[in-house]
Amino acid sequence: EERTCLISFSDSYYETSVDRIYPIIILLDGYTYFKTVTGIVHFMSSNRVGNNLMPESIIIAIENVDRRRDFTITKIKTKRPNTGGGGGKFLNFIEKELIPYIDENYRTESYRTLIGHSLGGLLTLNSYMDKFSVFNTYIAIDPSIWWNEEMMKNKVDSISSKSLNKKKIYIATANQGDANYERNKKRHDDFYTLIIKKSGEPINVAIEYFEKKNHRSVLLVALFEGLKYINQDN
Fold first, then answer.
1. Neighbours of 44 (CB within 10 A)
2. CB within 10 Å: which end of the chain, N or C, has fewer?
3. Whole-structure pTM over 0.90, yes or no?
4. Coil vs helix vs strand at 29
5. From CA 36, how far away is CA 30, in angstroms rounded?
6. Is 71 within 8 Å of 83 (Cβ atoms)?
7. CA-to-CA distance for 134 and 110, rounded, in angstroms?
8. CB 65 within 8 A of CB 138
9. Which are the contacts of 206, defined by CB distance < 8 A and separation ≥ 6?
10. Using one digit for the tens of pLDDT, what is the confidence trace for 11-59?
């Protein structure tokens, strides 16, 4: 497949020493969220603004081809044919093709963040749980966790000590109403609770509920709070 990626550089990229290197942010649903994320990152990191809440970064936003295929790891049987279950291959593309290309062509450091919303948030969680993942930090915004209780337990049981001790993840939960409580907030809370039980002291995991935000409107505030969380003490 051919893939289109949108790339944003910080103010200083072409203004400072050629020896300066930058962390990278990989953004899922790139066409939809590119302008929003670049605006927030610029606001939080630019010396011209003076916030210094995070380092200036290079943002690589991947445009979609097939969200259901690329953002889901597990193939779910449905009455109608579906393309789900290709998330492993998509992560392999990001980690073994896209990031090496970015590293070769731009001034990058090896500190990497993955950001995803909804199904993209689901893929972000799966990447976090993979001990071979090349990312350091993760922001999963209202992830579409469709796992049943057994699958969720098995996934958390599979998380390596490397993920728990060396990686950092922020999970944002939106208010999808009482009718969707079981499939949204409760599953997020259950996932977090299982991580607590497994790790004992999840100092690198945060979850935040935004009662006044729905699945769409939560993105803006979650990005700001998530970026602030993963960059504190860094």
1. 20
2. N
3. yes
4. coil
5. 10
6. no
7. 9
8. no
9. 169, 170, 171, 229
10. 889 887 778 999 999 999 999 999 999 999 999 998 777 788 999 999 9
